[in-house]
Write a structure and sequence with these properties.
- This protein is α+β, with helices and mostly antiparallel strands.
- The chain has a single domain, classed as Eukaryotic RPB6 RNA polymerase subunit (Alpha-Beta Complex).
- The protein has two helices and four strands.
- A four-stranded antiparallel sheet has the order 2-1-4-3, with helices on one face.
- The chain starts with a strand and ends with a strand.
Amino acid sequence: MYQEDTYVLLAPDLTEQFVTAVELRSILEGLVAALAPDQVPRDLQGLAPATWVDRLLATACTLDTAEGTWQWYVVRLEKTR
């Protein structure tokens, strides 16, 4: 059995960290809240800001910000007994 609640997050400086789904959601919420109107990705435009993080988690693995590009990838960890 596998868990899919861990992600590898790459910050713009390429610092790699493992985060939970809850932690990733919190980080993305902060990032999208800080986006300038001209930085909002095209696929998020026209959506309510409250749905942006859900959309990013469901359909993307990158977000460009003023600081650079953030990337995240799900990591499957083997469940231990």
